[in-house]
Each structure stands twice: as C-alpha cells, then as structure tokens.
TrEMBL record:
Protein name as it appears in the record: Sugar phosphate transporter domain-containing protein
Alphabetical list of CDD domains matching this protein: TPT_S35C2
The Sugar phosphate transporter domain, residue ranges: 17-309
InterPro entries in UniProt: Sugar_P_trans_dom (IPR004853), TPT_transporter (IPR050186)
Membrane topology label: Multi-pass membrane protein
One GO CC annotation: membrane
Locations listed in the record: Membrane
Gene: SLC35C2
Positions of transmembrane segments: 12-32, 38-59, 80-97, 103-128, 135-153, 159-179, 199-216, 236-255, 267-288, 294-317
Length: 351
C-alpha cells in the first residue's frame, strides 16, 4: 500500500506536468493569434516554426543518442518519400490552414471548429480499418456535430472564410492523424518515438507548404518593412524573435504531450485536453473580447460531451487491448507501439 507522502508527491507531479502542457498548448494558440494581428504572413510563420522544430528535434536526437549510446533511426530515401511524404503533406496543410485562419476568426470559434477534427479522425479510421464500427460512434458524431452547429448559430463574430479554413484544416487533420497512426505502427520504420517522427516530418512539411507560401505571401513578404525592407535592425530582430518564440512553443507542445503521457497516462492527456478547451474559451472571452451567447455555450457543452464520450470509449477499449497484450506476454517493443497508438488517438485535442 502506497504511503500518503508518495501519493501526494505523485499528484503534485501530475499537476505540474498538466500545467506544463497547458503553458505550451494554450500559450501557442493565444500567441499565434496575437502575432497575426501585426504580422499577416501565417504561412511564412509556419515555415519558420517547422525549421525551428526540425533543429530542436535534431538536437534532442543527438542528446538522446549520447545518453543511450544507441544510434537513432534514419530512414532511407525510398521509405522517406513513399511512406512519410503523405503524412508530412497532410500535417503541413493542417497546421498552415489553422494558422492562416487566425487572420479571420476568434480563438473561441477556432477552438470549437478545431474540435470537430475527431469526426474526421473517426471517419478515416473506419476507412483505413483502424477502428471497429461501434454504435456509440454515431452518438459521438451527433453530439459533436450538433454542438458545433449550436456554437456557430447566430454568432456575432462569425467569419465564413476563416470558418471554412479551420473546417478544411480539421478535415485534413483527420487524414493527418490517421496517417500518423499508420506511420507509427509500422515497426520496420522505427518511428515510435515522437521526436524521431517530428525530425523526419519537418523537411517534407516545409517543402509541401513552400509552394503555397510563395503563391500567397511571396510578393507581400518580399516588400514588407517587417523583414526584407527594414530601414533599421531593431524591427528585423524583433520579427525574428517573435517568430522564434512561436517555433519554440510548437516544439514544447509536442514534447510536453509526450512527457505527460509517458509519466502519467493517455487518459490524463485526454482529460487535460478537454479541460484545456474550457480554459481556452474562458480566457478568450475574458481577455480577448470574444462574445458568446447562451446557445453558443450550450453548443460548447454538447460538443465537449461528445469528445468526452469518445475519450471514455477509447479508454475502455484500450484497457481491453492492454489486458490482451498481457495475456499474450508481448515484448517491450510491441508495448511501446501500443502506447504510441494511444498517444496518437489523443493528439487531436492539442487544438
């Protein structure tokens, strides 16, 4: 039986990890929204973030290699282009469109619409046969869809262009996380560790998003006084610093998610993600001036109920799969793949 001191220490550690996750998860949402008010180049911002994440992932891999004395996985060109490229392209479009939408919509509308990604994840999981058909899934879909409809109904700050961008990002996000799950479940690739996955995804994500950036922002960025036509050094350094902070927050988000789920459980991450949505909306209303009616709040509650039901179902079936693995006396690598499968199932809550 565990002593009270160890229980308290474990609880304090879990609370600290959740708060650490909240700093990056909520922080990057508000930071990107704030940055977009004065820097209207979301695709360029995303490219900078991808570059920073790649560099930090490479440094982390080197540190892990020195610590464990074991070489990290590096894919060959054939596997890299054929198996990683589809996931990278979907991820780039998801993140790019999400950041782009901040030019048009409020944080509250972004948060709610982005939560609909679970609908598309369920759809593509069924298509790729990663999920078994379940009657409860119909209830999940109805709750989230009706909640999203109620949230956007008669909204005074509704913007159709931004809403379509986030909805399209959520659709692509469904493809993204389904492909990521398939990618991380392929044992021969050796990408079970999220740091290795981020390291391999970023270059192809950069290349996939770069043509869209050139088409939409290339000319405007080349003539802006914030970067290439600066008359003083200080504005340039300020722009680079603010972009770098966002990239660091993006990397910290992925790292904090993995740290939270590895030290606690995927259920903790899922529940923390649900409460994160509540905190985000409360902060958006309190500090960003977002306006929400009673119907909008009711829609938010209905949508969260659907997400909570989905989390509960995933936890129930995950426990069944865990018991099955223990009965089969599976090896440690297989258990690691199972854990990473659960991690991917919870990542859509990152916002």
């Amino acid at each position: 039986m565990a002593c009270p001191v160890s229980i308290i220490c474990r609880a304090l550690r879990n609370v600290g990890l959740v708060l650490f996750y909240y700093v990056f998860s909520i922080g990057i949402t508000f930071y990107n929204k704030w940055l977009m008010k004065g820097f209207h180049f979301p695709l360029f911002m995303t490219l900078v973030h991808l570059t920073i994440i790649f560099c930090l992932s490479a440094l982390t891999r080197c540190a892990m290699q020195c610590w464990t004395r074991k070489p990290r996985v590096t894919l060959g060109w054939k596997e890299y282009l054929y198996k990683v490229a589809p996931t990278a392209l979907a991820t780039a479009l998801d993140i790019g469109l999400s950041n782009w939408s901040f030019l048009f919509i409020t944080i509250s509308l972004y948060t709610m619409t982005k939560s609909s990604a679970v609908l598309f994840i369920l759809f593509f999981s069924l298509v790729f046969k990663l999920e078994e058909p379940n009657p409860f899934l119909i209830l999940v879909v109805l709750l989230i869809a009706s909640g999203l409809f109620m949230f956007t109904l008669k909204s005074t700050q509704f913007n159709l262009e931004g809403f379509i961008m986030v909805l399209l990002a959520s659709f692509i996000g469904g493809i993204r996380w389904t492909l990521t799950q398939v990618l991380m479940q392929k044992a021969e690739l050796g990408l079970q560790n999220p740091i290795d996955t981020m390291y391999h995804l970023q270059p192809l994500m950069f290349l996939g998003l770069f043509p869209l950036f050139v088409l939409n922002e290339g000319l405007g960025l080349s003539t802006t006084e914030k970067l290439f036509r600066v008359s003083e050094l200080q504005p340039l350094l300020y722009s680079l610093l603010t972009l770098s902070v966002g990239g660091t927050l993006a990397f910290g988000l992925g790292f904090s998610e993995f740290l939270l789920v590895s030290r606690t459980s995927s259920l903790t991450l899922s529940i923390a993600g649900i409460f994160k949505e509540v905190c985000t909306l409360l902060l958006a209303v309190g500090f960003m001036g977002d306006k929400m009616s009673m119907v909008n709040w009711l829609g938010f509650v209905v949508c969260l109920s659907g997400i909570s039901l989905h989390v509960g179902l995933k936890t129930y079936y995950s426990k069944g799969n865990t018991s099955l693995m223990e009965m089969c006396s599976c090896t440690q690598p297989v258990k690691e793949r199972f854990v990473m499968w659960v991690v991917v199932q919870t990542l859509f809550l990152r916002g």
